Amino acid sequence: MTDAQISLRALSDPADVEPLQPLYEHSDGPSCGFLQGLLDQSHCRAWCLVKNNQPVAAIWYQCVAERAEMVDLRVLASEQRKGLGRQLLWASLTALGDVGAVELEVRSSNEAARALYESLGFSETGLRPKYYATPDGREDAILMTLTINHGGSAT
């Protein structure tokens, strides 16, 4: 058995999103159509991780000045728990260039995502009480931020 070929691809055209549809089926996050519309905006930066020519993960940011907000990080259900989300997040943080801080929000119940973000240096910076709808009511959004050092200087 050979190792899978994994590569990072920038998403720059709305047509790039069509192959990502399986990532967004049966999802409660942003829709594929919503994310596709972001690509028309100059502040959107997005990448997908491709394994053996098939998209297995995608990440979306909105960037303004030296700040980026992660809008969505998605891994194909059959590929979860294999380190691909970590690989894509790390590669995209590197590719963001001059961004000095990355912000995100995550469901308080999403312990796996929170652990991933914390392991990469994100820290909790706020809370949006009862932000997300759930079948049983509402749940909080945890706000997290990562400050990125460029060339050894603090930002």
List its salient traits.
Aminopeptidase; 7-stranded mixed β-sheet; alpha+beta; globular; about 160 residues; single chain
Return residue spans where pLDDT drops below 50 for at least 5 consecutive residues: none
Mean pLDDT: 89
The CATH class turns out to be Alpha Beta
Classification by helices and strands: alpha+beta
| Strands in their spatial order, largest beta sheet | 1-2-3-4-5-7-6
Query: Strand tally, please?
Result: 7
* Basic shape: globular
3D architecture notes:
- The protein is α+β, with helices and mostly antiparallel strands and 155 residues long.
- The protein has a single domain (6-147), classed as Gcn5-related N-acetyltransferase (GNAT) (Aminopeptidase, 3-Layer(aba) Sandwich).
- The chain is 18% helix and 41% strand.
- The protein contains three helices and seven strands; from the N terminus they run βαβββαβαββ.
- A seven-stranded mixed sheet has the order 1-2-3-4-5-7-6, with helices on one face.
- β6 and β7 form a beta hairpin.
- It is globular.
- The N and C termini lie far apart (45 Å).
- The model has no long low-confidence stretch (mean pLDDT 89).
